[in-house]
Amino acid sequence: MIIARSPLRITLGGGGTDLASYYEKRGGFLVSAAVDKYVYILINKTFDQSLVLKYSKMEKVKAATELRHPIVKEALRMLELEESTLEICSMADIPAGTGLGSSSTFTTALLRALHGYKGDIVGKRQIAEEACEIEISRLGEPIGKQDQYIAAYGGITCIDIQKDGFVQMNPLNLSQETLYNLEDNLILFFTGYSHSAGSILKEQNQKSKGNDEDMLKNLDFVKQLGLESRAALEMGDLNKFADIMNVHWS
Questions:
Q1: Measured between alpha carbons, how far is 57 from 102 in angstroms, rounded to an integer?
Q2: pLDDT at residue 167, as a whole number
Q3: What is the pTM of this model?
Q4: Which of 27, 12, 24 is nearest to 228 (CA)?
Q5: CB-based contact 17:31 (threshold 8 Å)
Q6: What's the CA gap between 26 and 96, in Å, rounded?
Q7: Cβ contact 13:225 at 8 Å
Q8: Helix (H), strand (E), coil (C) string for 39-90
Q9: Which of 39, 105, 142, 231 sits CB 3.0–4.6 Å from 151 for a disulfide?
């Protein structure tokens, strides 16, 4: 049995500047933090000629091409896994649609598990890029690169996205004291509501592609807030970071 997991994340600054429609024009910057909540993938051999997939639903098919789950279907196709004797199960510490990047976290955990099943040794960047390839290029989701990369790398990380799409991952230079104070003063609540970010990101993507000046200026401001968040956190000034977070949210 293969068991893999990837962490969910919260964004500490710069959210939304990781979409290609923006970073190809201006470059993107985010501060992202993996949290101790995970998506788990389990892979095992089945005892009959069937491919079993268990998530919020259950599928049992004869071949991967018959699967309804688009991410699993594309991942199996990408890694050329055509076996029909696999059982793939997913579990998570939180429900989907809570704004913590669960879809991309699922994808990276799935790729980790499938590579492990094949006996492949792959690095974090390859996992992140393959997840981006599946979600953005193959499935056409209007999302950015933050979620796949932070799920693959973990930590509290500055994500610098160049105009050509290359992603530079730099750990945030955070003192232990600041980290402990940050953890002591952040509380995460589940409101009981869930949503899909797709419609919001789709609108942002379309406006950025169309060079909508208001949207681009707004994202320029958001990126600046991300840079200011990094500076405040690295200085250990959590009061300033809290003020920036408030502006960012508003």
A1: 16
A2: 98
A3: 0.92
A4: 12
A5: no
A6: 31
A7: yes
A8: EEEEEEECCCCCEEEECCCEEEECCHHHCCCHHHHHHHHHCCCCCCCEEEEE
A9: 105
